[in-house]
Structures are given as structure tokens and as C-alpha cells.
């Protein structure tokens, strides 16, 4: 039975009271008034088991806010102590289970006297200072009289302390304990927790001791301070003097969780590093800090920069009391599984997973009486692994999915997803390893189902710092929420404008709705871009603002020392023309501006386009980085099919079976795989296929001429001879329903081209094959995956490469050499380890040591930057960039705009964009054309043209004004003339005065003055006057030079500004004129 006096003491102390396992029928019966009256609580918070999860979560938020403000509260909870402390939710993790576990763990933290991680330097004055009790006030006066520096009622982590004393770099907590307000066991535990987390000792005095002899209490405090060693570390900040106000505000965040909105180039890593320094300097234990990075490169960069500031770092696995933890989410997942679930480090590879899935699939469908057979061009496991990713990364329920498997070309079978998923996972776990996505999934699953281990892990880390928060998928966010459920602190840095991984099940609401996961949060938008030149920032900002209102509000300005830079655009439907423009600018900047090749990066939306870039750079003699994550050009399937077509056409009767096998179902001629495999052993495939068609004709002819009136005769079956022997029946492998039409047309075309293309150069042969045999996936096709639309680009590249040959044999030799070269130089895929392909992103900077142009996809370039960036071949095949043409935009439009924004913001000084007018992307218009001009397109071109004419006239006028200023001596001519006349007159007077030396005695007598004295004064006066005139003339000339210099500078500056304005119009004119040309066509 809870005693009223104890409850009242707890509530009056500001910590409130939670009553668990409470019989809510008592409240319903009216007894609630009795409790409220005793504890002066008008509206107690009541949590019932019957309430919805949403209501329970909202009430917990309300209580936490009351607790943060140290407002007395009374919370009735129907759940028992064991239900709260032992909450577990086994089975597949899903968002509802995550919400449930976070509810119980938040409730547990409130019951334990826990709260959000407030900084201990934060005074409660911000919440309205709580009056001191009489004994606290008496102690305060004693501290004042002793000259000790202190702060009353301070938040220290989870708790509010009475006094925090700071003396000569040492800190000490002092508590004044009134007997009725304190529970010794709980106070002792609290003191231990504060010391373990903040390395701060506590000294306590009872109320009677303070009243009887406060002086002795002060002496004990001074003695304690003297005995303390100055244990708080002092780390230097990174570039402290260069931090802007928005960065400082984020770094100095006081308490609770924080969302730092960090646009591209705003110095987010500097903020992350300095936030760690801030926490360490405040006394937070190093191993209580966990920094989580998106990939290994980012983690290594963070480690390196912390080490430069003398901070010791390690992974959670090797952590000790003096090291800050730095990890990726996946390495953290493996750490949890290794520590609590005995899972090994190794990763279950895709090959291993597929082998397990194949076994389970065959067993499952065999039980259903269905035999799975391989079908040409069909992967039965593709949809399954997509579903598996949706479950593991997206935390969707496996019960909500089903899979459809093709068992024949025209027949498929549907089956529930969940049983196969469970069996595959069960079999996989027998290996004691997990897949990459499973590392986080199983960590979350384990923590949901084991409250003891979850509690241990939650108490391990007090401050979590998260990089690239916008890129976290639901499983990663779930792991983060579990870790901080007991009101730990999350300091998350991210930018919704750089969210480009939706295919990884990333939800924009993770960062947009940050407050729903972490209610007591601060919001800190960074506002200065230190990377991009001013014109680049203007272009990229203009583009991304079209995503409003589906983005966080932010205002980003360029750093005042950023150069103007350039943003250039070229529009041309031919990719080789686009590359000519790019190469021209690379060479120009290298020759005229001494730019290195390594200062250039050419970024693509899709990997396939990189072959065109690589080919063009090689032909131009410009060194480049190797292509990554793409097949070698001459080893690509579409190229191999093309070469096989050439070989068959030019040697029809004796070509190799392997070449026939590659082309016979390209495009699909509905010939079964079993039949195609049988071609491998034929001496002449051509002869064999001809024999089949001839035999079929004979069988049809025999059937058409036979009637019921004919006399039955025993006739030998028709036979057809061919290279391998004699054919008496149609091969069974063709099946009963096979159609000869496609095969007949195929051979007929081959016969025709074999004659027509004989002795023709390779280029003509390739053109004919591309036009007649539609085996490539054309770009005009409708396909959501643009990687599959690149076959036509690849074939165009091969055709271009073949132009250097007139002889087919030499072309064959060249092809074989290229295939061998590709195989030798291709980089092997790194062995799979604790990191994903995203985590294995190569540090592109390390590839530039030999000064090569970087070729990369936009996704791979994220987090990198170059002085000069080319965004190559901007177009929109799938009509995702609707821009102003649609009143409503969808998620694909928003994401594509973000992808291109990320690509453009990789540039520091010069941005070059190339694009097409065919399949035009409206992103070009959005980035380069003023919004007000887009709204009035019909008036845009005339306005720009008239404005250019006006500017050119103004430039010409300024140049005319500059002409007379070329010589500064031409300025102030009249003033100079007068001074020169005076100087000349003074010179003449001086000469006359000197002549007086030899003048007549009669002249001297007539002058009435002594000769020597008169002569001396006269010469001296004239000389002084002459010097003054010369000084004045010199001053006038200097002044003229200074004035004209300033005037010339201003006029030249005006000319440059007007020329820059004209140049900025060129992309707009380029786009608008091409749009109108297209409309006219």
C-alpha cells in the first residue's frame, strides 16, 4: 500500500509519482478526487491497457514534458511493474512493435526517475526558477559568504541537482536533503549514475546539519574540492574561430534530441566533430558517445578528424572508458549480434543466400506438386529477394506479401511469401551468419525480444550522434529509436534535399517528422554554403525549391569569400556532341587556367552512359579513372550478341554453334531452352535448322494431299539429309505447339544479309543488324529501370568504334584484344564484409593521384566534391520530371530532382550541364531559367534578347568613356596648364635674378638696395615659389592618376558585371529557343 506521505514527498520534490498496476476502477468510481485533493494535482494522467497505442504514446510525451519542466505530476498506469520492465515483442519486427517497445521503455525511464539527457550547465531558469527550500536557501547563503562559484537547480543528465559548484576547474555537486523528500537508496543510485556518466562527485548534507552548523558544511565542501583532481578533459575545437552562428547554435545545443538540417556544403562534418568535443569538455564519458555514420568512408573520415583533435576513438567492439565510439549502422548491428546472440562476423553472401533459396523453393513447390524448371531470361528468385529486402530493411510484414513464380512460359503459380521467408531464414541462421540487411534486422529483432540485453545496451550509450540521418531506412531508424528509448540524446545531422536512396526503402518522413520519434527536440538549420561558387549555389537553389512544399524550410547563403564561378549548359541530342563540348572545356580550362585533370568529375545518372564518356575521353587522350560496377564494354551481353550476329551472317554455313545459341532467341523467337541447348553439338546449325523447316514442309504437304478416300498405304516417313546426318522427325524439344514462322523468317533474313553484306565494312554490317534484328532494349521502350535502356547507347558506341576499320578480320582482332584487355584491367569486386556496397564507396579522391578525370554515378559521388563538375546527359525518358507542366508532382519527381541537386552541388567552382531536347528534363529549365520567365515563356526570349542588346550598348558607352582615361595626364588639363605657366614664369624670373649678379653699378645704385642682399632675397623667393608650383603640379598629377585609376576600375568592374549578366542569359536562351524549335517541329 502506497503511503500518502511518501507520495506527497515524491510529488513535492518535483519528480512526480507513477503508480503502476493501479486499479483504474477506483478512479472510475470517483476515488480519483481524493488523490488529487491530497497532492494538488488537478488533472492526473491515466494510462489504460485498453487505450490505443497512439493515445498511450501521446500521454507519455505529455508526462515527459511535465517532468522536464519539473512540474509535479501524478501518473496512473494500469500496467504492472513486471509488464513494464519485462516488455518483449518477439517475432518479425514491425513499426507497431517498435512503437510499443519505445512506449514501455519511455515509461520505464520515467518510473526510474529518468528524463531526457539535459546538459548539466543548463539552468532551470529557462523554465521558471523553482523557489529554494529553507535549508537550500541557508546553504546558498553559506556558499555565497565563502566566495564559492555555484549554480542552483541545475540539470545534470537525467537529474536536477541542488547546487553545482565550480572552483579552480573542479566541479562538485552539493545536495541539501530534507528527510521527508528523499529516499536514501534511490539517492545513492542516482549519485552513482551521475558519476559514471559525467564523472561528477556528489556530497550530501541533511537538513538538521545545515541548520545547526552551515559553516561546517561549507568547510567539508572546501575540503572535498581540495581533494578532487581536475579530471575534466579539455579538447580544442576544430576551426573554432571560423564557425558561423548557425553552426555554433547547433554545436551548443543544450539538452534533448536535435535535428541539424545541413544543406550541401554547409560544414556538417565540422559540426559533428565539434559536437563531440563539446560533450567531452562538459564531462560526458567518452565511451558513452556513439557516432553513427552512413558508410565506412564517412566513419573513417569522422575518426580521422577526431584523432587530429587528440580524441581517442574505437569501434563499439573495442571500446574502453577513454574512447569515443564510431561505427556504421551495420557494424553496430554485428556488434549487437556478436555480443548478445553469438553470431559470427562473416556475412552471408548473395551467392550463399541464392543457393539456400533455391533449395527451399524446390522443396516448397515439390510439396505442391510443381516442378521448377529454368526458363530463359527469367530469375525466379528476383521477386523473392526484393520481398526479403522489403521485410528486412523496410520492416514490412512478410504476411502481407505473396510471390508469383513462373513454372512455364505461359503459366505461373502464386504462393504465400511468409512460409518461404521463414524457412530460408531458418536455414540461413544455421550457418551462424547473416546477410548484410540481416545485420540490422536481427539486431532489432533480438532487442525487441530480450528486455535484459536491451536495457544493457540502452545504458551503454548516453549520446548518439548520427550522420546522414535522411538516408536511414526503417530498420536503421528502429534500431536508433530502441537505443534512445530511455530518453537518451540523439544529435542527428541530415538534409532532406539530399535523400536519394528511396530504393533502399528510405522514407522522407524520417527527417521531416523527426519530432514524432524524438519529441523534445531542437531544430538547427545551417545557413552558409562554404563549397559552391555563388552562381552554382544560385542555380542549385533555384532547382531544389521546386520541391516545395515537400521539404524542410531552409535558407542557404554563399560564404562571402566564395568566388562567383560559372554554371554552364549545353543542349544536344547526340551524346558524342555533348562529349565534344565537355572535352573542349576540359582542354580549355587545362591550357588557360592550369586546371588539372583530377579537378574534373563527370557524373552520370546511370552507369551505362559512362561507356560513352570513357570512349570519348580515351579518343581525346584524356586520362580517366576506371569504370566501376559496370561490365566491361566488349564483354557486355548486347555486344556479344551483336558480334555473334556478325559472325553468323558472314559465315552462315560454318559458324560456331555458340554464336547461334547467343542469337537464336534474341529477340525472342519462342524456341525452348532445351532445344537451344541441343544446338551445341551440331556440326552445322544452319544446315540443321534448314532441315527442320524442310521436314516440316514435307509433313504439311503429305497431310494436305491425303484424304479419307485414299487407299491406305504403308509409306516410309519423310527424311531430310543435313550435315550431321538424316532427320526423320521434328525434335521433341521444340514441343507440340512450336511455331515455325519465327524461325523461318529468321533464316530468311540471315540468307538475305549473308549475300547483301558480303565484303562490306564493319560499320555497315552493324547498322544493318541493328536496324533489322531488334534484339536490344531500345531507349524509347517503357521501363522504370533506366539501366536496362542503355543497349542502344552501347551499340552506338561499338558502331562508332568500328569506323576505324574497313576490314572485318581486323575488326575481329580488335574485338578480341579489347575483350582480353577488359578482362585483365577489370577490378575484382572486394570480398563482402561488414559493410554494404554503399559503405564500400571508394574514396574517389584516392584515385586522382595521377591526375585523371573522374567518371562516377551521382549516387557514388555523394559526399565528394570537385572544382569542376560535369553533369552529363540530363534527360527524362520515364517522364518523371514534370516540373511546371503538372499541377501535382509525385514522389519520383521529387526524388529525381534531389538526385540532380546532389550531382550539381558536388561542384566548387564551375558546373557544366549537358542535356537533350528530346525526352527533355524540365530540371534544366528549373535550374537555369528564372521562375518568372518560365511563367511567361512567350515573352521570355524577346525580353532576354532586348536586355542583351541594352547591356551591350551600355558596355559600348562605358568603353567610350574609358578612352580619354587611358592617360591620366589628360585629366585636369587646364589646372596643369596654369601650373606649368607659373613654373615657366618662375624659371624666367629666376634667370633674371641670376643676371643681376653681372648687372651695371648704375643699375644697382638706381635700385636703392645693397646689391648682395637684394640678389640673395630675390633668388631665394623665386626658388621657393618654383618649388611650391612643382609640388602642387606633382600633387595634381598624382590626384589625377588616383581618380582615373578608381574611375577606370569602377567602369571595368561594371563591364565585367554586365558581361557576366549576358553570359548568365545564355543557358536560358539555349533552353527556351530549343523548346520553341521543338514546338515548331
How much helix, percentage-wise, in residues? 40-55%
Which structural class should the secondary elements be placed in? alpha/beta
Major β-sheet annotation: 7 strands, parallel
- Give the strand tally: 26
Basic shape: flat
Percent of residues in beta strands: 5-15%
The Rg value, from CA coordinates, equals 42 Å
- Alpha carbon gap, first and last residue: 88 Å
Return the average pLDDT rounded to an integer. 81
Can you list the strand order of the major beta sheet? 11-12-10-15-16-9-17
Low-confidence stretches: 31-36, 114-129, 778-789, 826-849
Q: Count the DSSP helices.
A: 41
Give an overview in words.
There is one protein chain. This protein is of the alpha/beta class and 1081 residues long. Helices cover 50% and strands 12% of the residues. The chain contains 41 helices and 26 strands. The strands form 7 sheets. A 7-stranded parallel sheet has the order 11-12-10-15-16-9-17. A 5-stranded mixed sheet has the order 4-5-6-7-8, with helices on both faces. Helix 23 (534-544) links the parallel strand 18 (528-529) and strand 19 (557-558).
Amino acid at each position: 500500500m502506497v503511503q500518502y506521505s511518501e507520495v506527497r514527498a515524491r510529488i513535492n520534490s518535483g519528480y512526480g509519482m507513477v503508480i503502476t498496476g493501479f486499479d483504474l476502477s477506483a478512479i472510475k468510481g470517483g476515488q480519483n478526487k481524493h488523490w488529487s485533493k491530497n497532492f494538488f494535482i488537478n488533472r492526473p494522467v491515466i494510462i489504460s491497457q485498453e487505450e490505443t497505442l497512439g493515445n498511450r504514446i501521446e500521454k507519455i510525451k505529455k508526462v515527459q514534458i511535465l517532468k522536464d519542466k519539473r512540474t509535479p505530476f501524478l501518473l496512473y498506469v494500469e500496467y504492472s511493474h513486471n509488464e513494464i520492465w519485462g516488455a518483449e515483442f518477439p517475432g518479425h519486427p514491425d513499426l507497431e512493435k517498435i512503437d510499443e517497445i519505445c512506449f514501455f521503455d519511455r515509461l520505464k525511464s520515467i518510473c526510474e526517475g529518468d528524463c531526457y539527457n539535459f546538459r548539466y550547465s543548463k539552468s532551470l531558469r529557462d523554465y521558471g526558477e523553482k523557489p529554494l527550500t529553507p535549508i537550500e536557501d541557508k546553504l546558498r547563503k553559506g556558499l555565497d559568504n565563502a566566495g564559492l562559484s555555484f549554480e542552483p537547480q541545475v540539470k545534470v543528465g537525467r537529474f536536477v541537482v541542488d547546487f553545482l559548484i565550480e572552483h579552480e576547474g573542479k566541479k562538485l555537486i552539493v545536495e541539501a536533503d530534507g528527510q521527508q523528500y528523499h529516499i536514501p537508496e534511490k539517492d545513492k543510485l542516482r549519485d552513482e549514475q551521475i558519476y559514471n556518466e559525467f564523472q561528477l562527485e556528489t556530497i550530501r548534507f541533511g537538513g538538521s546539519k545545515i541548520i545547526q552548523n552551515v559553516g561546517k558544511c561549507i568547510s567539508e565542501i572546501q575540503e572535498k574540492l581540495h581533494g578532487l583532481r581536475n579530471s575534466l578533459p579539455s579538447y580544442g575545437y576544430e576551426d573554432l574561430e571560423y564557425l558561423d552562428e548557425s553552426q555554433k547554435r547547433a554545436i551548443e545545443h543544450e539538452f534533448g534530441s536535435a535535428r541539424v538540417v545541413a544543406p550541401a556544403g554547409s560544414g556538417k562534418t565540422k559540426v559533428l566533430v565539434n559536437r563531440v568535443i563539446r560533450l567531452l569538455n562538459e564531462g560526458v564519458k567518452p565511451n558513452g558517445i556513439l557516432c553513427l555514420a552512413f558508410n565506412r568512408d564517412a566513419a573513417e573520415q569522422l575518426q580521422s578528424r577526431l584523432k587530429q583533435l587528440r580524441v581517442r576513438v574505437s569501434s563499439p567492439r573495442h571500446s574502453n572508458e577513454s574512447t569515443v565510439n564510431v561505427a556504421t549502422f551495420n557494424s553496430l548491428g554485428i556488434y549487437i549480434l556478436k555480443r548478445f546472440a553469438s553470431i559470427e562476423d562473416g556475412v552471408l553472401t548473395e551467392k550463399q543466400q541464392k543457393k539456400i533459396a533455391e533449395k527451399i523453393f524446390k522443396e516448397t513447390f515439390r510439396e505442391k506438386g510443381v516442378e521448377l524448371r529454368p526458363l530463359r531470361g527469367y530469375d525466379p528468385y528476383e521477386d523473392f529477394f526484393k520481398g526479403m529486402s522489403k521485410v528486412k530493411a523496410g520492416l514490412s510484414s512478410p504476411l502481407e506479401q505473396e510471390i508469383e513464380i513462373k513454372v512455364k512460359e505461359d503459366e505461373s503459380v502464386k504462393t504465400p511469401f511468409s512460409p518461404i521467408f521463414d524457412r530460408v531464414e531458418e536455414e540461413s541462421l544455421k550457418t551462424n551468419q547473416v546477410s548484410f540487411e540481416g545485420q540490422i534486422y536481427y539486431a532489432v529483432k533480438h532487442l525487441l525480444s530480450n528486455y535484459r540485453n536491451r536495457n544493457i545496451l540502452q545504458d551503454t550509450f548516453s549520446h548518439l550522434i548520427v550522420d546522414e540521418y535522411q538516408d536511414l531506412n526503417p530498420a536503421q531508424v528502429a534500431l536508433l529509436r530502441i537505443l534512445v528509448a530511455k530518453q537518451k540524446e540523439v544529435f542527428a545531422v541530415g538534409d532532406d534535399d539530399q535523400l536519394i536512396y528511396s530504393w533502399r526503402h528510405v522514407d522522407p518522413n524520417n527527417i521531416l517528422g523527426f519530432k514524432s520519434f524524438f519529441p523534445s527536440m531542437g531544430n538547427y538549420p545551417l545557413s552558409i554554403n562554404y563549397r559552391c561558387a555563388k552562381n552554382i549555389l544560385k542555380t542549385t537553389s533555384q532547382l531544389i525549391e521546386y520541391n516545395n512544399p515537400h521539404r524542410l524550410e531552409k535558407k542557404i547563403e554563399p560564404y562571402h569569400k566564395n568566388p562567383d564561378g560559372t554554371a554552364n549548359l549545353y543542349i544536344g541530342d547526340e551524346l558524342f556532341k555533348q562529349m565534344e563540348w565537355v572535352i573542349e572545356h576540359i582542354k580549355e580550362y587545362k591550357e588557360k587556367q592550369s586546371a588539372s585533370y583530377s579537378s574534373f568529375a563527370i557524373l552520370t545518372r546511370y552507369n551505362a552512359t559512362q561507356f560513352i564518356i570513357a570512349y570519348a575521353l580515351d579518343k581525346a587522350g584524356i586520362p580517366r579513372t576506371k569504370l566501376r560496377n559496370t561490365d566491361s564494354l566488349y564483354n557486355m551481353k548486347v555486344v556479344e550478341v551483336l558480334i555473334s550476329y556478325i559472325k553468323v551472317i558472314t559465315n552462315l554455313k560454318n559458324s560456331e554453334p555458340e554464336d547461334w545459341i547467343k542469337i537464336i532467341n534474341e529477340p525472342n523467337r519462342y524456341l525452348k531452352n532445351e532445344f537451344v541447348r541441343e544446338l551445341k553439338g551440331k556440326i552445322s546449325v544452319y544446315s540443321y535448322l534448314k532441315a527442320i523447316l524442310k521436314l516440316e514442309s514435307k509433313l504439311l504437304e503429305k497431310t494436305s494431299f491425303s484424304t479419307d478416300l485414299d487407299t491406305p498405304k504403308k509409306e516410309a516417313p519423310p527424311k531430310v539429309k543435313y550435315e550431321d546426318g538424316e532427320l526423320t522427325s521434328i525434335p521433341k524439344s521444340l514441343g507440340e505447339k512450336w511455331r515455325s514462322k519465327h524461325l523461318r523468317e529468321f533464316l530468311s533474313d540471315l540468307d538475305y544479309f549473308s549475300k547483301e553484306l558480303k565484303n562490306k565494312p564493319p560499320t555497315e554490317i552493324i547498322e544493318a543488324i541493328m536496324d533489322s534484328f531488334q534484339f536490344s532494349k531500345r531507349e524509347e521502350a517503357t521501363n522504370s529501370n533506366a539501366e536496362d535502356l542503355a543497349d542502344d547507347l552501347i551499340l552506338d558506341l561499338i558502331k562508332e568504334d568500328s569506323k576505324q576499320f574497313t576490314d572485318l578480320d581486323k575488326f575481329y582482332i580488335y574485338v578480341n584484344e579489347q575483350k582480353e584487355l577488359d578482362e585483365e584491367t577489370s577490378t575484382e569486386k572486394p570480398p563482402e564484409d561488414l559493410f554494404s556496397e554503399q559503405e564500400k564507396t571508394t574514396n574517389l579522391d584516392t584515385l586522382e593521384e595521377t591526375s585523371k578525370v573522374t567518371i562516377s554515378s551521382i549516387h557514388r559521388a555523394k559526399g565528394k566534391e570537385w572544382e569542376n563538375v560535369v553533369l552529363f546527359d540530363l534527360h527524362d525518358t520515364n517522364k518523371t520530371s514534370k516540373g511546371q507542366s503538372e499541377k501535382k508532382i509525385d514522389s519520383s519527381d521529387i526524388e529525381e530532382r534531389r538526385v540532380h541537386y546532389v550531382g550539381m552541388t558536388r561542384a566548387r567552382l564551375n558546373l557544366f550541364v549537358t542535356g537533350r531536347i528530346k525526352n527533355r528534363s524540365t530540371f534544366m529549365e528549373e535550374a537555369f531559367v528564372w521562375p518568372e520567365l518560365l511563367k511567361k515563356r512567350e515573352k521570355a526570349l524577346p525580353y532576354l534578347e532586348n536586355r542583351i542588346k541594352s547591356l551591350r550598348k551600355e558596355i559600348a558607352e562605358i568603353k567610350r568613356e574609358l578612352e580619354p582615361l587611358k592617360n591620366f595626364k589628360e585629366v585636369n588639363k587646364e589646372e596643369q596648364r596654369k601650373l606649368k605657366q607659373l613654373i615657366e614664369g618662375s624659371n624666367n624670373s629666376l634667370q633674371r635674378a641670376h643676371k643681376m649678379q653681372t648687372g651695371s653699378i648704375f643699375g644697382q645704385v638706381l635700385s636703392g638696395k645693397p646689391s648682395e642682399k637684394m640678389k640673395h632675397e630675390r633668388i631665394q623667393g623665386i626658388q621657393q615659389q618654383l618649388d611650391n608650383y612643382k609640388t602642387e603640379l606633382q600633387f595634381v598629377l598624382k590626384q589625377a592618376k588616383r581618380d582615373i585609376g578608381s574611375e577606370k576600375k569602377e567602369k571595368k568592374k561594371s563591364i565585367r558585371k554586365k558581361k557576366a549578366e549576358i553570359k548568365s542569359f545564355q543557358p536560358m536562351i539555349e533552353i527556351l529557343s530549343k523548346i520553341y524549335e521543338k514546338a515548331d517541329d
